Amino acid sequence: MTVRRPQVSVIGSGSRHEATALEVGRLLAERGCVVITGGLDEVMAWALRGAREAGGTTIAIVPGELHADANEWADHVVVTGIGHARNLAVAASGDAVVAVGGSWGTLAEIAFAMRLGRPVVVLEGGPAVEGVPRAASPAEAVDLVLEAIAR
Amino acid sequence: MTVRRPQVSVIGSGSRHEATALEVGRLLAERGCVVITGGLDEVMAWALRGAREAGGTTIAIVPGELHADANEWADHVVVTGIGHARNLAVAASGDAVVAVGGSWGTLAEIAFAMRLGRPVVVLEGGPAVEGVPRAASPAEAVDLVLEAIAR
Amino acid sequence: MTVRRPQVSVIGSGSRHEATALEVGRLLAERGCVVITGGLDEVMAWALRGAREAGGTTIAIVPGELHADANEWADHVVVTGIGHARNLAVAASGDAVVAVGGSWGTLAEIAFAMRLGRPVVVLEGGPAVEGVPRAASPAEAVDLVLEAIAR
Amino acid sequence: MTVRRPQVSVIGSGSRHEATALEVGRLLAERGCVVITGGLDEVMAWALRGAREAGGTTIAIVPGELHADANEWADHVVVTGIGHARNLAVAASGDAVVAVGGSWGTLAEIAFAMRLGRPVVVLEGGPAVEGVPRAASPAEAVDLVLEAIAR
Questions:
Q1: Which positions in chain C touch D105 (Cβ < 8 Å)?
Q2: What is the ipTM of this complex?
Q3: Is A83 on the interface with D (CB under 8 A)?
Q4: What are the chain B neighbours of D81 within 8 Å (beta carbons)?
Q5: What does the angle CA B141 – CA B142 – CA B147 come to, to the nearest 5 degrees?
Q6: What are the tens digits of pLDDT across the range B39-64?
Q7: C1-19: per-residue pLDDT in tens?
Q8: Of A32, A103, C75, D136, most Cβ neighbours within 10 A?
Q9: For residues D34 and B18, what is the distance between their CA atoms, to the nearest angstrom?
Q10: Cβ–Cβ contact B54 with A under 8 A
């Protein structure tokens, strides 16, 4: 049988973090990871774009009821229909989670990921949460989550 | 028609915060609020107990599939069956939210409440979250949330 | 301690079923039940109105993110934010369920209630589902669900 | 950009329907569809197996909190943590839905799919629901859903 590829959820928001998200997505795809996001704009779009452009596989988990809610970089669209509660699915679906920027929704996802024991790394510029490791660069963040998944 | 009474969700966890939760529940009930929690143990139980003992009305919003999952202080039990995603319903159902102690689940609830524009107050001892007001005592927390609801 | 009153969820839709819903709500309240609905219009409103007018307690479990989404007959509003997935909470929160009219959403609620082992009665005019008991009148439906709860 | 491949959710349960589910999964993959199921056993496993063995892509949307809850035929695992409410996500994520056998959970998924306007086809042996088209064979079911998606 095929071994399932590692899945990394990239969470966050903020247009000023898009270039960083692109880089995180690209690096994750280059390392063989499937990239998952909440499927909408900004960080959620650019992380998928980075992964797609690097030949990776991308999954959008959207809060609404339509496939068309997802950005164009999603290979597969999971339509949840459950609004902000889909943040739980985004956090839970990652074998690990990387936060790039972000606000309250991102904080909810970090909290759920920690609650469920998923490794989380927050890139500088993202929410400061006591007990959650931080990384100074996309490369460091990707290294950290891949090490965590390998353990 | 009857005017709906204010609903305040009390969130948090930790057995050392139970006496505080009891006091918060009592004060909210004395001020005419319906008290809502996630319906399980510790803070979720003692806040309902405080409200009940003061003659108030209490609602448990439980994550599992059984009414019996709720603690004995719940007048009404909302059985969601959606696991940690019920944290969204707990946060959203409050006209305001008070946090007493707590860990990752509480952080998720604070984040959702802020995302949805619900006034939140964290009692000292609860998670420190930038941008979220804090209170030094149950009385101060209850004053703050009732002022916020009145606005 | 106080014993929790029985909770009956009234589900359904269709403006031509409003008078029936009013009667079901009234009878349930007269028999001491708390009445729960999805909190919006038509059957969801009239069942709560019937219960309220009979002096009963009513709970709306709404799919959106606002308390104001609930109809005016709700004593308490549970705001889930999870869209159609709140149908699971409506079904699960009833110690028993009565269907009055209804379409696809109602069918989902009947299915969830059966899945979770909640007694269900469908009033004539509601969806025909193999294996689900039917009643010819509000009085018969209320008798059946109260007998089922008592068992 | 890449065009997203059609996604078809295969729902249902019952060990006697496994061979049919295998065939449905195989045919969908041969026609270029991504196959989605609830990710557990019986129909949910065999539909993914059929798709995988035909070289297709498979997605499991599981109700629990662990990737390991998914069967071995899932290429990608979406971990929702929301219990039976994940049935909404399974129904909504399909551009169309095929039911193979099934009980109450399947009925909830059919109802949600119809509510959201997703084309649904029930194979003979699955729940009879007024207004939902039926098919006599996997080939007919797959033809019907692909025609519906193309419209």
A1: 111, 115
A2: 0.97
A3: no
A4: 82-85
A5: 100
A6: 999 999 999 999 999 999 999 999 99
A7: 568 999 999 999 999 999 9
A8: C75
A9: 50
A10: no
